[in-house]
Amino acid sequence: QVQLVESGGGLVQAGGSLRLSCAASGRTFSTIAMGWFRQAPGKEREFVAATKWSGINTAYADAVKGRFTISGDSAKNTVYLQMNSLKPADTAVYYCAARFGLVQTTRDQYKYWGQGTQVTVSS
Hints:
Elements: E1 3-7, E2 10-13, E3 18-25, E4 32-39, E5 46-52, E6 59-60, E7 68-73, E8 78-83, E9 92-100, E10 112-113, E11 117-122
Parallel strand pairs: 2-11
Antiparallel strand pairs: 1-3, 3-8, 4-5, 4-9, 5-6, 7-8, 9-10, 9-11
């Protein structure tokens, strides 16, 4: 099993930055792919970014390319999502997800999920 805990959400002004963290436990970090998804009120949960802890097979949603960066720290079993140039449209609950194998971009491919962390971007 894999347990995931997100942190780092909060309120930020448009144009600002936040860094989200997702700590994984239960299985070796090197064998799993980690992804970030987000869900705004009344919207479907959508893919944001994903990576292996080594940084290979990295993927980003078009809406966040050039602004968000996903990275991993194998020593801490933690994946980060650095979010820069935030927009009000980025407001959502951000969820960490994990799966065994390569990175994927659809939520149905991820078995393990965290509880989410709220990100609110004000104009």
